[in-house]
Each structure stands twice: as C-alpha cells, then as structure tokens.
Model the fold of this input.
Amino acid sequence: QKEVEQNSGPLSVPEGAIASLNCTYSDRGSQSFFWYRQYSGKSPELIMSIYSNGDKEDGRFTAQLNKASQYVSLLIRDSQPSDSATYLCAVKTGANNLFFGTGTRLTVIP
Amino acid sequence: DTAVSQTPKYLVTQMGNDKSIKCEQNLGHDTMYWYKQDSKKFLKIMFSYNNKELIINETVPNRFSPKSPDKAHLNLHINSLELGDSAVYFCASSQEFPGSPGDTQYFGPGTRLTVL
Done:
C-alpha cells in the first residue's frame, strides 16, 4: 500500500465550479498535510498546509482534514482556467518523512 | 532573486557517464532535499541534509552521492548513469528541521536528466 494515494484523474470542471481533490494516507501517526500545485514543466509550489482536523480556508482554497478517516481534501471554489495543473498531496509521517501522492491532474474548462 | 536554484536545467548524457547537479538556496534555510520525479509524476524523496549533516537517506543506489559544502548548497553526484535514472530531479529547502509541523518546502526549478 502506498503511503499517500490520490485519484490520478484527470478531473475536469467547468469554469466557476468547485473542484474537489481527495487524498488518503496510511500512517495514522501523520501530523502534517500539504497541498502542492505543479504546472506542467514547473516545480511544485505549496498552496495549503493543514495540521488539525477540520477546515482551513485561504482565499478560494479550502483544505479539509479528517484524521480518523485518514483523509485530506482540497476544494477550489470558483475554479479558473489558471487553476489547471497537477495537485500533489503530501503527508509528513510519524517517522518525519514527507511522502507525496502521484497527483491529480485538474483541467478547468472555460 | 531566485530562492532555490539548480544547474543545469537540462542534462543529456550517455549511459555510464558521471554527472553532477548543483543546488543553491538563498533563503537562509537550514534543511535541503533532493527529490526524483519520474515520468509518471511520482515525486520521491532521495536525501535530506540539515546544516550539512545527512538526515534522510532513502533507499537510493549508492551511485548517487549528495554533498553539502555549506548549508546553502546541496549538490548531487551520480556515477555510472543508467537509463532508469532519467527523470526530473528537484532540489528543495525548508526553514525547519524535518519533522517540524511547519516544515514548508520550497522547490527549485528542477533538472531534467535524460540518459541515452
């Protein structure tokens, strides 16, 4: 079983819609959770981090964490074509290693 | 000013050759990393250094040898290159020690290595 699993997509949503990206992880001791965005041919950039159960909002982005279900998600409201990218979920495990999922490719259709 | 820089951006070489990739960060961070991203976009950590000391050394062939002359630099030397080494290699840095909850990593632009 992989440490971090994501649906590889592609996920297509119309402009203005809500995009929902999901991630599950295997290590119950994990404490820190991150969402990175990676445009094609570019490096990953951090967009959200979350450490406690519940929701964390930053502009159009909301990260949701449920440690009991070992589940973390990212919601993008009012999706824009510029949001089209691969979104990487990253989890820092109890052993202090950072593991990335394989990413979900999001396409926002104008 | 580039926060995390890598050179070269592209590297094309023959099997069996030895090559190096350089990384520098001007963020004043204490921790630096090397990641490998394969053709399926899977990003996997290879090494982590904190203040020039090796902290994380994942299962990586010993043909890969990181070197940190100071905490702002972490270079990656690869001996006897193989076809399977073709990938994009990313350097990253973070302010805090690996394991700190707020360990936000900043990535360099990547080096695309192609082994022929």
Notes: Chain B is about 0% helix and 55% strand.
